[in-house]
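FIELD: query
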Amino acid sequence: MEKKGFKAHRKEMNRLFLGTAFLAATASCAPDKAGEVPDKPNVVIIYADDIGYGDLGCYGAKAVKTPNTDRLAHEGVRFTNAYACAATSTPSRYGLLTGQYPWRRNDTGIARGDAPMIIRKEQYTAASLMRDAGYHTAVVGKWHLGLGEGEFNSQEWNGLITPGPADIGFTYSYIMAATGDRTPCVFIENQRVVNLDPSDPLEVSYTTPFEGEPLGSTHPHLLKVHPSHGHDQAIVNGISRIGYMRGGNSARWIDENIADSITQKAVNFIRTNNPATTGKPFFLYFGTQDIHVPRVPHPRFAGATGMGPRGDAIAEFDWSVGRILATLDSLGLTENTLVILSSDNGPVVDDGYLDQAVELLGDHNPSGGLRGGKYSAFEAGTRIPFVVRWPGKVKQGVSDALVSQIDLFATLATLTGQQAPAGAAPDSRDALGTWLGTTSQGRSFVIGQSTGTLTLIADGFKFIAPSKGAKYNRNTCIELGHDTLMQLYNLREDSSEHFNIADIAPDKRTSMKRMLDSLTAIQ
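FIELD: result
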């Protein structure tokens, strides 16, 4: 980038990152001329887990059928250049809901199941925005953002767990505390453990095993799914996890029923909060467990793909999408509901369990030909599926506009005509026109985060900052993209990132580094 171009970019970035000025601007932004936004549509976010750029039919997958997701893409706009905030779950979810890049804090890494809530209760979130706009708001499914406050394992698992989703804008919640492979393995509804027997209290630890409780490492004969690496601690439902737990037996989930349970709760929320009866629109953040490990789909999906549990879990995810769409159809809500479908990060095949995912992968390419995967600074770490549908408002088709999940907050602010408090969502910008497909103009840059470094995408180029992390994760067989040398890729000509052009394009390398340094220095 020429010096003049960099100065122009920096001027724009300073404007975008100055919270008060930016939020005042986005609050007054009108949607594109292609049709005025009607009064407060319903909003449903379907947030998949570990589904890669090439895992869905609408993104080229052939070995697994995803008709419901494909329907969304056909009826809406499918983005080919969309990015999650990070290459792992917790930071991506943090950025999505807060509009703040997770790397701006040092405590947004992959959360333990007993982590305190990472989004602070005083933070103003996308859910807070929607609640204040008059919406019924809900989070259903995977949470993985911590609960309670203070130290690790300070939660009152046997009473009201606070703070929680209600403190950051969600009027209803039915969640998993972390992920399927981490304790506690229970559902939490409105911040209380579901079906908990007071005479059998739940205890959780991530430091010390409970005496007398079998572990995957010591009692492998009790397992129906065996670990490939890690995941050898508490045994729940014949599957060993990360972390320890004791008690709460009546509350423990059955993995095969997770998709059914959370999908039904999501459907129930939509039905109960039908605007035709409540007079208020709804905002639903639906985080699925599929296709995160352990992959134990319901028996009715067994053999659905010939790819083993990983492929069958993709089919199960698509079934969940179908249930949501069918519910909207049956209630006559489809026309005035904005549906956004995406994933929290890129794919991983073996992520800790012996589920034949590697052996049965066949010709299926979860990354869609991109390099890397979950955890990685390469493209497959953060470039994800992103589909937006709003019948009559979205311009149907395919878009190569550069988009980021960090913009959910500001886009919803424009959608609902809300003005957020000064300082909220400092990194989010209005992208409504882009998401609706009424403009081909996308972001001028995207910052990504892997497990060890930051990346910058701008003007068709990608810069990966130097780092001393491992280059390769031997457990997951994923290239992590770390290098002590600067990396620069021309994504227009080399989307698979095979050719590092940092040495042959020193001016571009220098300008990208300066731009990233400038952006990360802004607070």
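FIELD: remark
The chain has one domain: 3-201+252-447.
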